[in-house]
Amino acid sequence: MKGKVVIFVVLIALLVSLTALADTSTTGLTGPQGPIPSWDTVVQMAKQEGSVSWYAYGAEYDKLYFDSLIPKFEKQYGIKVNFIFGDWYAFLQKLLAEQKAGQTVGDMDLVFTWSIPFNDAWNAGVVWKYPWSYVIPNARNIVDPYLLQYTDMIPTNGAFVPFIWWQVAFLYNKQMVKNPPQSWDDLMAWVKANPGKFTYCDPNAGGSGHTF
């Protein structure tokens, strides 16, 4: 695909919410093998190309967040971002269709996605198998170095840059639920005993539902 190098650069903006939280070691994890370009080299190569096409999905607040990052990125690096906001499934199908058609040059430099479609894309051979999560300088500050190699327990080989780390929490009304479930089995029993009283995010529409 066109501009494989420039995808390194835009990712640094997405790491802001995860990095600088703690200094952690990657001891015990297998990093990239062999020589890889330095960050400065990547930036210079990206500037030569001049622009990056970034495909992303999410809720309206995600788009607002991305829109706020792009001007800062463009000002810092002098690289224009062509931002396409839409449907992750459509993005994946576009990649697969281009591959099936024998197209070797496309317009998708970076795709903001999650674990399952990433795994599908990886297995289909449409992901650049390059450990860029080890190239971005502040990736080393991610609180859990495990995230450099896995997402949702799916191995990424460093080709998936961590951008968010959510945790599942349960909200309930203490006035109405005196004895909340303490285990998964307890929760399932409570759900069956209280039809229509429990809800969670659609896994196809949000990450918290998928994690749940």
From TrEMBL:
Q: May I ask which residue range the UniProt record assigns to the signal sequence? A: 1-22
Source organism's superkingdom?
Bacteria
InterPro entries documented for this protein: SBP
Under Gene3D superfamilies, the record lists: Periplasmic binding protein-like II
Q: Which terms are listed as keywords in the entry?
A: Signal
- Name by which UniProt lists this protein: Extracellular solute-binding protein
Native organism: Thermodesulfobium narugense
Name the lineage.
Bacteria, Pseudomonadati, Thermodesulfobiota, Thermodesulfobiia, Thermodesulfobiales
